[in-house]
Amino acid sequence: AAFVLPLLELLLQHPTSDGPRPIRALVLVPTRELAVQAAESVTRYARGTTLTSTLVYGGVSIAAQVEALNAGVDILIATPGRLLDLLTQGALTLSALEVLVLDEADRLLEMGFWPDIQWLMKAMPEARQQMLFSATLPVELESLASGLLQDPVRIEAELLNSLVNDIEERLY
């Protein structure tokens, strides 16, 4: 909900013209399991709107995913590997992309996807909004992540390295 609801509001404020739907928003996640979760959230929150979404990830037939993309999609939820495959095959374009969401950004950056993300960003318009979401962002990845964003706003639920006072430790 943290990124899906604002994303839906943004896309609904500026609907596309009639005709084929270009990919206007990309949610990039590191694993198939997280991609499925994100896609379920988009589907649930977009119910009752005209926005469409689809999910692409590796390990399954690419044909059905290409068919869904050809039908037109507003929001694409993808893992980096499958997205690279589809782009290099010419099965999709990101030329109309307005918003890029990097979900679980710490894992995207830690799992060795950084070169792929850099390549993917070159296939996107420069004028786009980028959002980075992560439950944790280790200090060593912070400078890398800040290089992805312009004038970032950091929102934290709790102070960095805060202590939980409700935990009692015992050693036997």
Per DSSP E runs of 2 or more residues, the count of β-strands stands at 5
Strand content: 5-15%
Task: Output mean pLDDT.
Answer: 85
* Order of strands across the main sheet: 2-3-1-4-5
Through-space gap between termini: 43 Å
State the helix count: 7
Tell me the structural class. alpha/beta
Any descriptors?
5-stranded parallel sheet; alpha/beta
Write a concise synopsis of the structure shown:
The protein has 172 residues and is α/β, with parallel strands linked by helices.
Topology, element by element:
Layout lengths: L3 H10 L11 E4 L3 H15 L6 E4 L5 H9 L4 E4 L1 H9 L10 E5 L1 H6 L3 H9 L6 E5 L5 H8 L26
Parallel strand pairs: 1-3, 1-4, 2-3, 4-5
Describe this structure in words.
The mean pLDDT is 85. Strand 2 (53-56), helix 3 (62-70) and strand 3 (75-78) form a beta-alpha-beta unit. The longest helix is centred in the N-terminal third of the chain and has 15 residues, at 32-46. The protein has a five-stranded parallel β-sheet with strand order 2-3-1-4-5, sandwiched between helices. Helices cover 38% and strands 13% of the residues. It is built from seven helices and five strands; from the N terminus they run H-E-H-E-H-E-H-E-H-H-E-H. It has 172 residues and is of the alpha/beta class. The relative contact order is 0.16. The chain has helices at residues 4-13, 32-46, 62-70, 80-88, 105-110, 114-122, 139-146, and strands at 25-28, 53-56, 75-78, 99-103, 129-133.
